[in-house]
Amino acid sequence: MAPPDLHRFTLDNGLRVVFAPDRNIPVVGVSVHYDVGFRSEPEGRTGFAHLFEHLMFQGSESLEKLAHFRHVQSSGGTFNGSTAPDFTDYYEVLPSAALERALFLEADRMRAPRITEENLRNQVDVVKEEIRLNVLNRPYGGFPWIPLPAVLYQTFPNAHNGYGDFTELESATLEDCASFFDSYYSPSNAILTVTGDFEVSAAKDLVAKHFGDVPTRPLPPRPSFAEPPPSGELRHEIEDRLAPVPALAVGYRLPNPQTELDAYLANVVLSGILSDGDASRLQQRMVQHDALVTDVSTSCGLFSPFEARDPDTFTVTAFHPGEVAPDAVLSTLDQELDKLAGTGPDPTELARVTARWTAELHADHDRIISRTLALGAAELLHGRAELISELPARIAAVTAEDVATAAKALRPDSRAVLLIKPAGGAE
Amino acid sequence: MTTTAHRSAAEIGRTAQGPRPLPELAAQAVAEYPAVVDTVLDNGLRVLAVRRPSVPMVELRLRIPFGGNEPTRPATAELLSTALLTGTEGRDRVQLDTDLALLGADFSASVDPERLVIAGSGLSSSLPKLLDILADLLTAPAYDADEVARERDRLVERITVAMAQPGTIARKALQRRRYGDHPFVNEMPDAQDVAEVEVEAVRELHTGFVVPRGAALVIVGDIDPDATIADVQRGLGGWRSETRAVEMAPLPMVTGNDLLLVHRAGAVQSQFRFSAQAVPRTDPRYPALQLANLAFGGYFSSRLVENIREDKGYTYHARSSIEFTGSGATLLVDTDTASEVTAGALLELRYELARLVANPPSKDEVDSVRQYAIGTLLTSTASQAGFASQMAALVGVGLDADWFRGHPGRLAEVTVEQVAEAAMEFFTPTAFTGVIVGDADLLGKRLSAMGGVELP
To answer: Starting at the edge strand that comes first in sequence, how are the strands of the sheet with B115-123 ordered?
Structure first.
């Protein structure tokens, strides 16, 4: 994959900046990744990092409430933000004429967000509605990203619900907000990424003009979230009154994505060999041959790969008919992992995964928002935005032995199993 | 929350310099929409090929009109779309997926009461081979009895899961409320109907209705359009039928009606789904309608979102959109709110509809939605996949890429008065019908007392 034309510099206040100009499309993408996610929120304040993400849209010194949205949209742009375990991102895609405006908007809230009691209460209500919509009022809400880590991990940062408990969201104070902002939202804890149709030296001047006087602050040391892998199979069952059929999720620990990237990439390939497409191992065995499950999927990463630091989770999820016992699904999974651990995948399986990954990375790169966010996240987590364009070659270099080793590490005596049991009530 | 000393929220929100002015917009480069090679092959298939070489990929969208009135049609069509990719006469299921994967490719099929769409993408260097596989799917699908039976069982389970989702329940209820028993309401078949579909019926449906005449294939990517047309002629020339793809029967007009409360026991949140008649992109009133809709609830900075989310905190999501259906269009207003604020949200929804008529969008509001509409057309067509999907949708309603080129100009010409006219014509509160899905035991008495709500 052609490497993007990358430019990188750091302002005196510590803000790291990545430029990837592309003059072929008349639009720009702008993102800011802050190096804090829901793993960093304190006990008693579950959901706070995400709630704070909402508050960053509620106005800043130069911008009344609602002004951020209005200025982006009336410039022809779109915006959003998201909270991940290890970072929080904010982004806009706009016609290129609005580049300076987007930089202004991001700088203003990095410098002086306007956090008020009224907006805090309003956004607690909005976040509660978000949780009702995505979790409480639907079957399998939050499955598996909320309940699975609670089984696999023992320490609060890794195990808790990042969406948050209603009571804890309601008890958030302005004092909490101020402390969180001053601790984690310093420019020296952030990465600004700009992609698309702009001229590098002019954009450099604009970045200096708008972000240059954002004051820096000392950062708290980033804690390690490391914890030992489970020493047995940890099993938990949840009753879901809205679910019509059973489901299960299995969580395993992954190699450290920062320090053992090649071993991590072997798991990316393993996931493709297990479940991507009708010719993958689990689709053939569990869906087509044994008819044990309706759907099965695997994922390297709780959401997707390359989006977290250590510890990260390899997940398997399946929906199965009520007459199939969960242990039948689990033992079949173990058999397929044993086979791969014994003899590894064949060359065609490796070629399939490499070709699909390469194509998918091209398609992601073609969407300016995906490109912007991928570069920013790679710079934040790995210190190397160029990792994105190197991935196809590194994926292609993964060998059958590497995949066998990865499969061997997904052991039944060191994993979490979450069972969703239908509990009536569904129509 | 941390041990470091920190400022107060009020101190954080101000600097010595004070508020700063918003930068002006710079000059905007104009989007260049590449030429579209648009032709009809002798088998009746329309092919549109566009060169967009941003990445070495190609996107395909094959759209086949798929109307039909038979009661068994929705279930048969759904099973056809699920089983289509389970193999051909020459490739079993595993071989098919392997052949696609080695080209960096993936195909998917989806069906609704209007059309069948086969969408795909792959490395652009593999386009001729992708077209061979597409031809294989169209002219020699296997519909192997065992594969179809397995997919039928899976589909029954998936429909059961989908029907537990409040969004699906609400959509189904809205369809019935506004269109009665027109075939358009059958977007998701009943599980028991699917369970009765025989493999022979799937094969017959494919032979009779998966036909090139009336269908359109859009190809966008790092390709040479003329060579691509020749590739398609070579690859898909053998796909033939004397019959023509069938358009869905015209929809009746949506007429205003009371809201139907649909009971969902124990629900903690209510789904609002309202609809009224609108006009499609081909109508001269469309640009003004598009802007009126955006100002009402079509983007985040709209009246509806600023009121019920950012002021009241009643919802995470509220939206008004224009749904294009066959030769027509409707307005769709939807939001989800906690049970305890459902009555309040109904009041505000009605208020905002009436306010759009009584107090139509100001010049500032119109300027904002105009820039938004022009800008998002630009950003949404900037990728191969975005361009391909938008092209396929336009072609399905008799338009083409000229519409992209002309639309910014049409939006620029809309006056504030025309937006007010459109608001009056399309947003009359009594022109809407719709449903509220929620716990009727909690909500019924109050909603009924608010008037215009029919209890379950």
So the answer is: B36-40, B46-51, B216-221, B57-65, B115-123, B106-111
Q: What is the ipTM of this complex?
A: 0.93
Indicate which of A23, A129, A292 best probes the interface with B, i.e. most B CBs within 10 Å of its own CB.
A129
Identify which of A174, A277, A362 has the shortest CB distance to residue B57: A362
Contact flag B7-A178 (C-beta cutoff 8 Å):
yes
Distance from CA of A218 to the nearest CA of B (A): 9
Does A76 lie at the interface with B, CB-CB under 8 angstroms?
A: yes
Interface check A109 vs B, CB under 8 A: no
Six-digit token string for A138: 């639907």
Residues comprising chain A, all counted: 427
Give the model confidence (pLDDT) of A327-346 as tens digits: 999 999 999 999 999 999 99
Across the A:B interface, residue pairs with CB atoms under 8 Å apart total 294
Averaged pLDDT, groups of 10, chain B, 456 residues long = 76 96 91 89 97 95 95 97 97 97 97 96 96 97 97 95 94 97 94 97 98 97 97 96 95 97 95 98 97 97 96 96 92 96 97 98 97 92 92 90 91 98 97 98 97 96
Nearest by Cα to B400 from B152, B117, B144, B47: B47
At B25, which helix (H) or strand (E)? Answer: none
On chain B, the residues whose CB falls within 8 A of the CB of A187 are none
- Closest to A222 measured CA to CA, from A86, A88, A111: A86
Structure tokens at A369: 């928002």
Instruction: Report CB contact under 8 Å: A76, B20.
Output: no
Nearest CA in chain A to B146: A288
pTM equals 0.95
pLDDT tens digit sequence for A281-337: 999 999 999 999 999 999 999 989 999 999 999 999 999 999 999 999 999 999 999
**Could you please report the per-residue DSSP string of A4-45?**
P--EEEE-TT--EEEEEE-TTSSEEEEEEEES--GGGSPTT-
- What tokens were used for B189? 């078949």
Q: Which secondary-structure segment (H or E) carries B130?
A: helix B127-139
- B183: Cβ–Cβ under 8 A, 6 or more apart, which residues? B67, B68, B69, B73, B74, B113, B248, B249
Coil/strand/helix, residue B381: coil
| Contacts with A66 from chain B: Cβ below 8 Å | 301, 306, 310
Q: Under 8 Å CB-to-CB from B234, ≥6 apart: which residues?
A: B128, B131
Which chain A residue has its CA at the smallest distance from B384's CA?
Answer: A366
Name the average pLDDT for chain A: 95
pLDDT (tens digit per residue) in B341-370: 999 999 999 999 999 999 999 999 999 999
Q: Dihedrals φ, ψ of A36, to 5°?
A: -155, 135
Chain B residue whose CA is closest to A293: B154
